[in-house]
Design goal:
Layout: E1 2-10, H1 27-39, E2 46-47, E3 56-66, H2 75-80, E4 87-95, E5 107-116, E6 129-131, H3 137-144, E7 149-152, E8 167-178, E9 181-188, H4 195-208, H5 215-222, E10 237-243
């Protein structure tokens, strides 16, 4: 028995997220189907991040166990010949059987795009959040400094989140503006359900002048979802990378 790790990129537009569910087709479902057909086994992958409907990925991670004799590095080539064009395996390799993509320590990096201009651009509507009112990026950067560090992020997760702790560590946040596109990049040791989308919604409120930058600290201290900004739409969000390297 071998455990194979897949690094997966996908356009989440046409899928109901990563995790198998009854209301529509998912990334996990499609990969399971093609892996099972390829190996002749009943394959069920274990994913690192259960991205929501419409969320994209450049580097999600999943593992599966197999007895078939396909070389580990060839699964990527074989799968990419079978998968739809909006899902591509970036790498496949063998990992120890005890490796679990959700429970092994890792750093995750997400990116969120905000199109800030008078009118939408149709070709970007599936990959960004549109905001027609001018955002003050400097104030958003100032506010983001309060998010960096080890905090209880209960104010920044959806109420139906089921976890043992809402404490997470954010290592880095960068906010850059290139023309009309504002890009927010955030890295941490883990993220709560909808956490990135609520953080971005809160930063947009700061950028619009509805909240002063220092109010973000009050939101964190409140541990109350109603104090934070709205959850922005999923399509602006991309899971960039899950890094296990620091743990060998």
């Amino acid at each position: 028995m071998r455990r194979i790790k897949l690094t997966i990129a996908y356009d989440g537009t046409n899928y109901c997220g990563w995790q198998i569910q009854i209301n529509g087709i998912t990334i996990e479902e499609v990969i399971n189907k093609h892996l099972s057909n390829l190996t002749g086994e009943n394959i069920a992958v274990i994913g690192a991040s259960r991205t929501d409907s419409g969320v994209h990925a450049l580097g999600n991670v999943a593992v599966f166990d197999t007895d078939c004799n396909i070389p580990s590095d060839k699964f990527s080539y074989a799968l990419n010949q079978r998968l739809p064009k909006d899902i591509r395996i970036q790498e496949s390799c063998q990992v120890p059987l005890e490796f679990h993509p959700r429970y092994c320590d890792s750093d995750k990096t997400y990116q969120y795009n905000i199109l800030n201009r008078n009118f939408e651009i149709p070709t970007l509507r599936l990959y960004s959040h549109f905001e027609f009112m001018k955002l003050d990026v400097d104030k958003m950067k100032e506010a983001s400094n309060y998010i960096i560090g080890n905090h209880d992020f209960k104010s920044f997760c959806s109420l139906r989140t089921q976890v043992t702790t809402t404490i997470r560590t954010i290592y880095r946040m960068e906010i850059n503006k290139n023309g009309d596109m504002i890009t927010i990049t955030i890295s941490g040791n883990g993220f709560l359900y909808n956490m990135v989308r609520i953080i971005v919604g809160t930063l947009i409120k700061v950028g619009l002048g509805a909240y002063p930058p220092e109010y973000v600290k009050d939101i964190i201290d409140a541990k109350d979802r109603t104090k934070a900004g709205p959850k922005v739409k999923a399509s602006g969000l991309t899971l960039i990378d899950i890094d296990y390297e620091k743990n060998g």
